[in-house]
Every structure is written in C-alpha cells, then in structure tokens.
Amino acid sequence: MAKKIGILTGGGDAPGLNAVIRGIVVNGTKSGYEVWGFMDGWAGVLNGNAKKLILDDVEQIHCKGGTIIGTSRTPIFPKKGKSNVDRSDEAVKHLKEMDLHALIVIGGDDTQGEADRLFKDQRFPHVVGVPKTIDNDLRSTDYTFGFNTAVQIASEAIDRLHTTANSHHRVMVVEIMGRHAGWMTIEAGMAGGAHVILIPETKYDMNDVYKVIKDRYESGKGYTIIAVAEGIEETSESKETDAFGNVKLGGVCETLEARIQEWMIENLEKPYPEFKFEARSVRLGHLQRGGSPTAFDRILGTRLGVQAIELVKNETWGHMVSLQGTEIKAVKLEDAVGGYKIVPDYRHEEAELFTGL
Ligand code: F6P
C-alpha cells in the first residue's frame, strides 16, 4: 500500500502556493506516495479534514494565485501571552489515525514554528517544511516565493502613481505590506523610483521627509512619491490580533498623508494663489497577495515542492527546503524560526543614492 503524505498551507496566502502543491503532488505521486491535502492549514489537521490529491487536481494550478487547499492562522500549540489551549493532542491523534508517513508544512515563521514544535515533541516527528511569505522575512532562505510577485505588483502601482501625482503636484504615500521587515518596500520603492522609502529597520525623522518634499517643490519637480512599509509603526488602535498574537496592521499611510498635507499648507509657498498643497494615500494591502504568480515564483514554488518530497524520501525530518543561491538545500527548521530576516543597512544605503531618504 502506498505511504501517505499530508500537506497543509498556513498563514497568509502567497502567489506560488499552488506551484508548491503541484510540485509535491507530481513528485510524490510519481515516487509512489499518496498525497493528502489538509483543508485550511492546521485547522484541517485538528478537524481531520483532508482530501486526497491526484495528478488531475493539480494540472495547471501553478499559474493560479491562492491555495487550492485553503489556509488559516490556526495554531495547535499554546502561544506565549495568548489564552489559546494546547490542541496538539488532537492534531497528533488525527495524523496517526490517518496513518500518515509524513507531513509537509508550507508556511511562514508562525506555521513553521508549529512544525518545529511538532517535530521536537516526537509524537509525530516526520515533519518537513516549505518556506512561504510575501514579506520575504523568513530566515535561512535567500528568497521566499510570493515575494517576487508582490514586489512586481507594488512597483507597477508606484509607476502608475508617478503620473497622477505629477499631474496634480501632489505627495502620494503608498503603503506596502511587510510586518517585521521592509523587503517589499525597499525593492518596490527602488524599482518604481520612489523619492522616499520608509522601512521598519531604519529610524526616520519626519523633518527629513519634509525636506525631500520641499526640495522637490522648490526645484520645480512638484510631486513626491513616498513608499512606506505597513510595519514602520503599529498604528492599529483596535489592537486586534490574530491567533499568533500579530497585531492587525494597516493605515500608516493615512496618518502620514494627514501630517504631510498639514505641514505643506503651513510651511510651503504656493506657486500661484489658487494652488492647493495636497497629499493622498494608497494602501495596496491584499492586492499584493492575490492573483497569478510571476514566472520566478512559479518556478521557485515548483522546485521547493519537488525537493520537499526528496526530503521525505531521505527522511530528513525537522528540516525545511530553502533557496541558497540557485540551489535548493535542506536547513534545520529550528534555524529558520523564532526571528526574522531583516533588510541590512547597506540595502537602504544603496537605495538612498536615488531617494532623498
Ligand atoms: O502574510 C504576510 C502578510 O501579508 C503581512 O504582510 C500582513 O501584515 C499580513 O499578512 C496581513 O494578514 P491578513 O491577511 O490576516 O490581514
């Protein structure tokens, strides 16, 4: 009888997830395994909700966004400072009842953290990870799939904002996803030619932002594009958190819009009496996560899925497949979780050559 492999996708979706699923199902099936998809992340494991995936289910899915098996931010282990109960017994019970040989966990830091705990707990140690996040902030891997697509979407948005901002002589603040790290903002800001880039890793002073705006107005370039990472400050007043304790972000662009417009009205000289100093904000939000993945993310996702099956074949438990240069290698789950890969200073310094800040 064929050995069974379970797979799940957890956390925020990312373009390329379906490519990973296809890679796993194709290599897994051709290697003689049965592949079962748990629905909606760890929730599917807790509820014993899984469906068998065959080759027909994954045909051409690598071109599609989202995940065909759904996702959620459901934990199985208790979290520090949260009241959620330990549900790992239920999870292990269902994994064993299904007689699974291995579980492949596709997700970011929170989801891989659960995978690492399950591996170390030893009640179900046959665990392999596949790194995922559009934020690109997972350690032990050069890039995560989804990031390339998200950067492409954000840089196209910045391209479009240039013409409208220029026509109206406005400041445009564009908010880009990125909770702990400013990878998407720095790359999209560079690609799109933003005039100011603000990321969580770098301290900023509003007076420096105002100086860029003033210099541009005074030199006749009457508009400014500001790319800002959602994580520069936690602006959410509700303090609403997900099950992993992450505060719901979003809205920093609106705060900046109001501050900048007020400062311009008070501090800049009008070019003619009727002129109005105006700022506008755009929150790209989930537009960056939806839709079809780029060729880069399709290929990276496919290769990671294929190699995850190789880890299962070699019984490399407690490891995650990872892009290192152009190769896919195995790294320990424990080295990837519990911290973030942030933008190093030199990347911001490179960007600063082209921005005022
Ligand atoms: O998956 C990462 C991410 O996209 C972050 O950039 C963002 O802060 C968060 O997810 C948004 O999560 P949700 O979809 O739950 O609003």
What can be said about this structure in brief?
By secondary structure, this protein is α/β, with parallel strands linked by helices. The protein is built from 11 helices and 11 strands.
Topology (elements, then pairings):
Layout: E1 4-9, H1 17-30, E2 34-38, H2 42-46, E3 50-53, H3 88-97, E4 100-107, H4 109-121, E5 127-131, H5 147-168, E6 171-176, H6 183-192, E7 196-198, H7 206-218, E8 224-229, H8 252-267, E9 279-283, H9 295-313, E10 319-324, E11 327-332, H10 333-336, H11 345-352
Parallel strand pairs: 1-2, 1-4, 4-5, 5-10, 6-8, 6-9, 7-8
Antiparallel strand pairs: 2-3, 10-11
Helix pairs in contact: 1-9, 5-6
The structure holds 6-O-phosphono-beta-D-fructofuranose.
According to CATH, the fold-level topology of the largest domain is Rossmann fold
Helix/strand class: alpha/beta
CATH 2nd-level architecture of the largest domain: 3-Layer(aba) Sandwich
Relative strand content: 15-25%
Global outline = elongated
CATH class label of the largest domain: Alpha Beta
Termini separation comes to 61 Å
DSSP E strands, number: 11
| H/E element order | EHEHEHEHEHEHEHEHEHEEHH
Nearest-integer average pLDDT: 95
Q: Gyration radius, to the nearest Å?
A: 23 Å
